[in-house]
Amino acid sequence: MYNRDNNFNNINNGFQRTQNNRRGYGNQFYNTHDDSKIFNKTFKKPIRRHKKDMIISKLGKRFLNDDSKVAYLKNLKHIDIDSKRLLAKDSTEILDQIVYPKNFQLIQEKRLNDYLQATTVLNIEKTKFLKNFIAKEFPSILQVDPKVNKNWKASFSEDKLLIHKLYERCNAKQHCGINLKPFISSTNLHDTVYISLDLEEYENSSKITEVGITIYDPRENGFYDKNNNGFYHKSIDPFFRTYHIIVKERITQRNKRFIFCKKQESLFNETYILDFKNTHSFLQLIWDRYFNNEVLAANGFKVALVGQSVMGDISSLKKEFNLKENFEFDSRLTNSINVQRKQQNANKRVKVRKPIVNVYDTEKLSRIVLSDSISVKKQLRFLNIPHTALHNALNDSYYTLLSFIKMTNIDSRINMKLDDPMQIFQRWNHLQLLNENTSTVIPLEIAYLLEKEEKLAAFEENGGVKEEESKSVKKLNKLTQQLEFGLPLDVDTYLDIPF
Question: Which SUPFAM superfamilies match (predicted)?
């Protein structure tokens, strides 16, 4: 019988043993850890690459090409937006025909303001309770001067420190009322396209190796009803556009010192392997379709950037790809940036207002909403969002956007009671318990894979694979099919990526 616990211990022992033949791995990680045979074999295996042209037969290509030439829209006399989106090859131009209804904005703003007022009232009451509780249970913490006593925290338990921190948070009022409004307005007005961005860089050169982009567009996730004051009928099934790009010239650059390379572990959609030039063209297309799109603004919509410490990623993108943009990123959420430009026919500089793109940094937001600045992984745990395979660019961008929406959507905030410091206290304690008791249980599918590798190695040592042994391996293959990630496609041009 297969013993999963023993196998797990063997893997751990394999990581901890010291071997002499570390060919090509003279770095920090492999100086302190060692890899089992299975891990080493898997990690060194080249990234799968499939030519997109080889997937579809010649007949299939003709079939798709002939369909693309048919103009289905001309056969409809009365065409609404949904019909156009249904029949169009590319819905971008059709989405740009949608106008954000002002009546709906007024309705949503009233709900938003009522909610923010309620959070202010709740905060006042909770502040009183926290202050009275602290004064009764451990009043000395209220007289502490951190400037005088720098080691004051050592005198109090973690629970007392957390309760005091929640009191200071409530007293500062940054997580409620008008201080919270800039962070959550766009999500609840349904007027903003969110572009979540994440990059992975090579540890030895800081060059970009992966780009992950996840897009949430309210125009694709609901219907603005003109006959009902522009009311927004939100889809019960949220739709995200996901793009995962690996830079072809850097496909062999794989991190292993601080984090493991997860290029192959995209959970959403295909992975596209593009050369540097086409990666630039793809990014410029995204920039032009959303950030540089003046039609969006004219129709009452906005575009915002979402990410974890995302301004660092933007700096890296600008440094390597030099993307053309007619806007300014605003990470302070001031909603107005005056940029000095030099006039063509004058020597003096004048202030010219450029379009702005709000930047929502989930690290900053977690500090306000969750009382501390925490990583994406801890945010996901805190918010009960299932996750895996982090440090893949697309996975990170997707999960970061989920975390952002969860922290800013009124219904999610009410359901999870994110405005109640007592609920925050419970969640922090639960998170601390998870950190202190990390589970060593490995998924059964992975255990099957490990057994498969062991059996194949044993078969090879014995001079081949017998028929009955081959059946056993086939069974393992069938049981582990659900572990498949997105298919890596080697494409010739960014135009091969479906939008």
Answer: Ribonuclease H-like
